[in-house]
Amino acid sequence: MTELMLYILPIWFFSLFLGVPIFTAMGLAAFAFVMFGGVPPVVVPQRIAMAANSFPMIAAPLFILMGNVMNSAGITDRIFRFATALVGWMRGGLCHANILASIIFAGMSGSAVADAGGIGTLEIKAMRDAGYDVDTAASITAASATIGPIIPPSLPMIIYGVSADTSIGGLFLGGVVPGLLMGVALMAMVVVMARRRNMPRHRWAGLWELWRAFRQAFFALMAPVILFGGMISGLFTPTEASAVATFYAIFIGIFVYRDFSLRDLPKLVLDTLETTGVVMALVMTAALLGWCLSVSRIPQVVGGILTHDLGNPLLLILIVNVVLLIVGLFMEAIAAMLILVPILVPPAIALGIDPVQFGVIFVLNLMIGTVTPPVGVVLFVTARIARIPFEQMSRAIVPWLVPLVAVLMAISFYPPLTTALPRWVLGN
What average pLDDT does range 86-101 have in this prediction? Predict the structure, then answer.
């Protein structure tokens, strides 16, 4: 079985470079293992159905729908105006506002692509109009978008939690401090870059303008407060929070801001179904391939090598960081997660690494991958919005990777950054 899988995996990996869709390649690789390995074919539909029949996965389409409603209801515009009124007076103020808006939006969307494609459109236009060069506007937008999946809610953390059998509530809470650290680190980088590049400084709008922006954005700002407060208090689970968040977004869009109509909902639902369909296809085929890998005993062999030959949790984390950063260069985040979780999680647990810490490290690594060439999806989205070549976008993002990697190293070396809040709230 192990030898058969070692023949199949290189062919599967090579097919990715030929442009074969990832879920198709994973499904075909798993089916080949089943057929040539003498495994009963009934295993294929069974494993696919088991992967789809997951209660936590219900949260995925609802959080995606909530993000779509937020973008359509003009909520992003109010968030950015408030962030600008709060920190726009500093040198490089719109860079700071960009980051702050992403932190706030992260508490609602849970997606880097949604952040870059939604509020990023508004941010880049505002920065260019204010005299910022397009490279700075696009790169800070892409870098700050990676905060989206770290601060709860988070679609990648839901998928990781389902795949690794880890508490999604714990992962959500574990991402709060690292997400805020990412924002602080990026803002510190802005302070340095603003002096070097002589970025614009805008006048202080005054307390009245700040109050006015806060009042207009109040209900949008309450969304992450309601979600986070509800999960901490135990009023609802992370899965139930997705339904609460979606209802709240629709309610304030229709009755408070009145920029959203029920006539817009069918199109948003269709867009959500399309995105969810792609995610579920990846989840189901990856679950099947993961089962095949388990039967072939490759994870057990790799896990044995990592645990017995290394024997040091910190060394394992450093190796995993390097592997995931490299994988993130070439593979979409969710697909990489679904493939590597069955291989890398068991040895981490065996060495006593906290599953929440490892999960946040795992997700942050792959989010950094979304802003690194050659296949960084957030880079593609941001380059298209800014109307600049992808190569130019790839060069512009390089300095902003430094603070992101610094936060990654911090949570790798100091576990309480990811584990203290979950233990305090959940009591375990």
Answer: 85
Q: Running DSSP on this structure, what letter comes out for residue 201?
A: B
Dist CA 370 CA 126 (whole Å): 24
Locate 109 and state its tokens: 């969307």
Q: Residue 236 has what DSSP assignment?
A: S
Q: Is the pLDDT of residue 78 over 90?
A: no
| Per-residue pLDDT tens over the stretch 236-277 | 777 777 788 788 888 888 888 787 777 878 888 887 787 777
Q: At what angle do helices 398-413 and 176-197 cross, to 10 degrees?
A: 150
Q: What is the CA radius of gyration of the chain?
A: 22
Strand partners, 91: 201
- C-alpha to C-alpha distance for 367 and 378, rounded to whole angstroms: 9
pLDDT in tens, 131-160: 888 888 899 999 998 998 898 878 788 888
What pLDDT score was predicted for residue 300?
61
pLDDT for residue 306 is more than 70: no
Are 146 and 132 contacting, i.e. CB atoms less than 8 angstroms apart? Answer: no
The letter for the amino acid at 313 is: P
How many Å apart are CA 211 and CA 201, to the nearest integer?
Answer: 21
Q: What would the 3-class secondary structure string for 353-411 be?
A: CCHHHHHHHHHHHHHHHCCCCCCCHHHHHHHHHHCCCHHHHHHHCHHHHHHHHHHHHHH
Q: Which residues of 301-314 are buried (b: 16+ CB within 10 A; e: fewer)?
A: ebbeebbeeeeebe
Element (H, E) at 20: none
Work out the pLDDT band at 56, boundaries 50, 70, 90: low
| Closest of 298, 299, 285, 279 to residue 47, by C-alpha | 285
Q: Which residues of 407-418 are buried (b: 16+ CB within 10 A; e: fewer)?
A: bbebbbeebebb
Residue 309 has pLDDT above 70, yes or no: no
Q: Give the Å distances, CA to CA, from 305 to 101, 340, 351.
A: 44, 16, 12
Neighbours of 327 (CB within 10 A): 18
Q: What is the pLDDT of residue 183?
A: 93
Phi, psi angle pair for 203, to nearest 5°: -70, 150
